[in-house]
C-alpha cells in the first residue's frame, strides 16, 4: 500500500525538492495547485434512482451509541412520514475536568486538559497555554509560533484524514460491495476520476480472504443494507475508496509522526507548554517533518480531494439535508507573526448567512443548563461567572426534561455552529485567496453535477460540512509545508527562540483557538501560579448542545430536523449528519465553576471526597 | 563552673571515631542529597550519586559498629566520673535519672530553674540517641528502595508498594533527611550552648574540668580544676 | 468454554432482551447476505454465519475481540491506530475480529450493541478496555446505550478469555480519578475485584493485563495481542499485572540522555543551548527516574519520537497503582515541573520543600529564642546551678536515692563502724581527686 503511494507521488516529491533548493524553504509553499477535475465519465456517473419508492415510517429512531466519533453520544429522533421532525442529542459521560484542574499549575493544565480528547489534544494544549500566557503576560517568540503551527497543523491533517476516510467514510463507502468490483475497471475509473491508483486487485484479494473467513470484525452490525438504500457507489468506486481507506490509515499515522517528532508522542503531545515549546529542532528533525509534510500534501491533493469530487455526484442528496442554524463561530487558528486572531491563517470571526462578519466577543458567550444534568443556575451566564452543580435527575434522558451532560453555550443568546465549515466560511468572507478559490471551484463543480447554480448556502448541509473539511485539509497541508520552510529559514538565518518565561504569577486569561472540530475556549484564573478557576468550552459543546431555555435546539439537533429516514432502525442519513459535525463528545461535557471559591461540595464520590 | 567535668572515660576513642564518621558521612549525605534532589550546579551528578551511596553505606555500617561497640567498649555512664561500665548502660534509664523526664522538659522550658542532677545523658538526650540508629536504618532502607529500583528485590519492591510508589518513597527519604538536619541543629545547639567542653572532648578527645559526680551517692561530690593543674604541669 | 450451541440456544432470548423482533433481525441478516451474496460458493461460511449473526462467523482465523470505550478520550484507540507492526489495518482484517469498537466499527446504535452481545454470547474473545469506570451518581456519570458503564463491564467480562486494560484510565482511573475525583472514576481491575468480593459476579475473573500510559503505547498493545495470538499466552506479569518486559525498568534506566545525567549536564530552562545539546531534563521535573516503562526503547508513533526527544520532561504517565484509588499518575506526579509531587493536606497542596523549610525555620527560630532565654536566665555563663536534690526524691522520700538518703545511710554506717568507714572514704577521695567533705550542689 505504501509502495503504491510512493511510486504515485515520487515525481511530485522531486519537483518540490527542486523548488526547495531554488526558492528557499518557503518556496514549496502554496504554489499554484491544480486538482484534476475531469468531467465525470459515463463510467462513474451516478445512476438515477430506479424509481423504487423508499418507505416513509413514523416513530422513534434512536442511535445509541453513535459510533465512529470520539466519546459517547446518544441521538433520539422523532420521525414523521420518513422525515426527522425533532431531535434530542445527549452526551452520556461526565468527567469533571475543570474541578481536577483547580489548585494545579498552569503548566500542568496544558498537559492535563489534553486528556479531554485523544483526537485533538494539541489544540487543548495550545488553548490552555494561551490562557496561561494571557494570564501571566507572556508573548511567545516567533520560533514557538511556527512550532505550534506545525504541530497543530499535523494534528489537523491527522484528524481530518482519519475522520473523512475511517470515521465518516463508512457512511458512504461499502467495503463489502468492493468484492463485486472488477479491479481492471476500477483502475480506469480511478484514472478517469483523477484520483490515485493503487493495486486494487491486491486489496480486493485481501478483502476476499477476509470475507471468506466469515468474521465481520469492524463491519459487525453494519448499516450497509438499510432500507434507505443509501450506499450508492459503484463496486469499483467502493473498491477505490476502500483502498484509500487503508491508505488513509497509513497517512493519518504519518501525520501523527510529525506531531510525535515535534511533540514527543501523539495523542497527548508533550512539548506544548505555556511560554512556547520545549522542542529544539535538529537538522534531522527538520527533514523528517518536511518530507512527511510533503508526502501528506501530495497524497491529499492526489487522493483525498479527487475522491471527494468523485463521490460527491453520487451523494448530491446529502447536500439537501443537514442544514444547521446558519450561524458560525470560529475563534481562529494558526497564528501569523503578529499573533492577531483576525489575521490568522484561518481567521477568527462570527458570521451567519444573515449576519455580517464580526470579531468574536468573549462577553457574548453564555451557557445554560436548563436541559442538562446540572442544578440550574437560572439565567444564562458567561462561563467566567457560571455556577454549576452536577445533578443527575430521576427522569434523565426524557425528551421533556434534562437529557444531556453537555451544557448549552450560546452566542448573543443564539446557537452557533463550530467546525471546519465555520472556519472556512469565516475565511471565505475575510478574503482568504486559497479558500475562496477552492470553495468557488467546489460550488462550480457541485452546480454542474446538480445541474443548477449552487451558492455558498449549499454548504450549509451534511455534504457541505464534509467537503469543506476536506478543502481545509488541503489548505492546512500547504500551510504546513510553508511553516516548516519558514522554520528552516529562521534556523539557517541564525537560530530561533522557542520559549519565553513568565514574569508574574497571577492573573486571568483566555485562550481562544480552534480544535479540528471547531472553536475552543479555555479560561483560567491564576493566583500565585495556582489555578483558582478553569473553564473550557469545546466545539462539540456548541454543536451537540441541548436546548436552551427558549427551546431553541442545538446546531446538531437543528441539522437533524428534516433528515430523511426510511429505516427507523438504521437511520443512515441521520448518522451522516451527526458525523458531518465530527463530534467529540467526551470533550463536550464539562462544568464551569464560579470565578471565586469552590463549589463542588455537592459532588459525591465513593471515597468520601467532599 | 556549673557543669560536670568532661573526662575521656565519657567518650572513649572508638566513639570519638564513630562520631567523626557520622559527622562527615551526614554532611556529605545531606549535601549530595540536596544536589541529587536538584543539581544546583552542573557537572557532578555522577560523583554526587557515588558519594551519596558510599556515605549511605558508611553511615549505616558505622551505626551497626557503634551498636556493637556499645556492648564491647566500656565508658563512663556518668559525667564528671571516671568509673566505667559497658557503654550501652549510658543509654538506658539509670538509678539516678529514671524519673527525670519531666524535670528535663521543665528545665529546657525554663520552668525549672535548677539543672537536674544526673548522668552523662539527660533523659531526652538518651531517647533521641536511641532513635538515631533507628532513623539511620530507616533512611538507609528507603535509600535502598530508591537505589536499585530495577532489581525489584522483594523486600524493597514490597516496601515501595506499601508506601504507594517510588514518588512517595522519595518524599519519605526527603523528609527523613530533614529529620537528621533538624536533629543536628538541636544537637549542636545543646552541646555547645553551655560551653565548648563537650565538643572538645568529642572531637579532640581533650578533657576539661568541672564538678565531680559520685554515682554511689548519686550526687556531686566536688570539683576538678583540671585546667589549672594542666597549666601547672606544663610549667613543670 | 462457550460454544456455538450456547450462542444458538440463547440467541432468541438475547434478541428479546434487547427488544429486537426476530423478524427484523432476519431481514437484517438477509440484507447482509444479499450484499455479500455475490458468490455463495466462494464464501459459504459467511453465508452460514449470517443466518444467525451480525458478527458473521463466531470463530475463524481471527480472534474475536471487543474494544470497550468507557470513560475515555479515545486517545488509546487513536494511539493503537498508529501501531507500527502490525499496523491497524492488519489488526482489523487479519488478526482480530474487532466486533465492537465505538471508534472504528461500521455499525452504530443497536446493531453495534447486538454485535457486542453476540460476541459475548459466543465467548472466547479478548476484552480490551479503554477508559475508566465511573461510580459517580450511582454509575450514571457514564451511560452507553442506556446501560451503565459498570454493568457493561461486569457483563462483558463474563465470557472473556482475558482482559487487556489499555491506558492509565482503564488501569487505575487515570487523570479522571485525580483529586477531587468529581465523577468517581475507578480502574477496571479494582472495580471487578471489588465486584467479585462483593459477590456480584457469578464467574471467575479472567486474567487481566494492565498496560498503563496515557495514552497506551501502541507497541505495547500490539505486542501483548500478538504474543497472545502467536504463543497462546500472556507475557510474564509484574505484581501489578503489567508485562514485566515492558514495565520493570525505569525510563531513566534506558534514557538516551542518561549519560548527561551522570555527567551533570542539565537543562535548567527551556529554549536554551542546553536543550539544543539535548542535556538531561532532570532539573525541570523529569519523572523518568520514578516511572517504569520502556518508552525510550519502543518510543512512540512508529518509533519516530518520544517525550524526551521533543525536549519535554517525562510526566510519569505510566505511574500506576491498580489496587489503590488516588494513586493515579496525575496526583502522583503533579506539579509536573517539580521534582517531588505536592503533599496533600486536606484541600491544600503543598510542595514538600515548603513544609521542610517551614519546620526547619520554626525550629531555628525556637532555638534562637531559647538561646536568648539561656542568656536571660544566666545559664550561658557556666550553666544553671545543679539542684541539690532531685525533685522526684523530694516528693518520694521513701524511694529517694539522692543526697538525703545517702547522708542517712552514711550516718548509719558511720555510727555502726567508724574505723572501717574511715579507711574506705580515704580511698575514695584519692581516686576522685576531690574532697568528699565539701558536699553539695552547684554554687
Sheet bearing the most strands of chain A, described? 3 strands, antiparallel
If strands are numbered along the chain, what order do they take across the biggest sheet of chain A? 1-2-3
What's the total number of strands of chain A? 15
Classify the secondary structure makeup of chain B into a structural class: mainly alpha
Derived structural class of chain A = alpha+beta
* CATH architecture group name of chain B: Up-down Bundle
The CATH topology of chain A is Cytochrome-c3 Hydrogenase, chain B
Number of domains of chain A: 1
Order of helices and strands of chain B: HHEEHHHHHEEH
Q: Main β-sheet of chain B, in a few words?
A: 2 strands, antiparallel
Count of structural domains of chain B:
1
Give start-end ranges of low-pLDDT stretches of chain B.
none
Q: Give the beta-strand count of chain B.
A: 4
What is the helix tally of chain B?
A: 8
> What general outline of chain B do the C-alpha atoms trace?
elongated
Structure characterization notes:
- The complex is a heterotrimer of chains A (610), B (236) and C (443).
- With 610 residues, chain A is an alpha+beta fold.
- Chain A has one domain (2-28, 56-602): Cytochrome-c3 Hydrogenase, chain B, CATH 1.10.645.
- Helix content of chain A is 40%, strand content 13%.
- Chain A has helices at residues 2-23, 97-101, 106-112, 121-136, 142-168, 183-193, 200-213, 235-263, 283-311, 420-429, 433-450, 462-492, 539-543, 555-560, 572-580, 585-588, and strands at 59-63, 73-80, 83-91, 272-273, 276-277, 327-330, 349-352, 355-358, 365-368, 374-375, 389-390, 408-411, 507-515, 518-527, 530-537.
- In chain A, strands 1-2-3 form a three-stranded antiparallel beta sheet.
- In chain A, helix 3 runs antiparallel to helix 4 (121-136) and helix 5 (142-168) runs antiparallel to helix 12 (462-492).
- Chain B is built from eight helices and four strands.
- In chain B, the strands form two sheets. Chain B has a two-stranded antiparallel ribbon with strand order 1-2. Chain B has a two-stranded antiparallel sheet with strand order 3-4.
- Chain C has 443 residues and is of the alpha/beta class.
- Among the domains of chain C are: 59-242, Rossmann fold, CATH 3.40.50.700; 251-353, Cytochrome-c3 Hydrogenase, Chain A, domain 2, CATH 4.10.480.10.
- Helix content of chain C is 42%, strand content 10%.
- Chain C has helices at 4-17, 22-36, 44-50, 75-80, 88-95, 109-122, 149-156, 168-172, 188-197, 218-231, 244-247, 251-254, 258-263, 273-276, 295-298, 329-333, 352-376, 391-395, 403-416, 418-432, and strands at 63-69, 96-101, 125-130, 133-134, 143-144, 147-148, 160-166, 185-186, 208-211, 343-345, 348-350.
- Chain C starts with a helix and ends in an 11-residue tail after the last helix.
- Chains A and C meet through helix 3, helix 5, helix 7, helix 8 and strand 5 of A and helix 2, helix 3, helix 4, helix 5 and strand 2 of C.
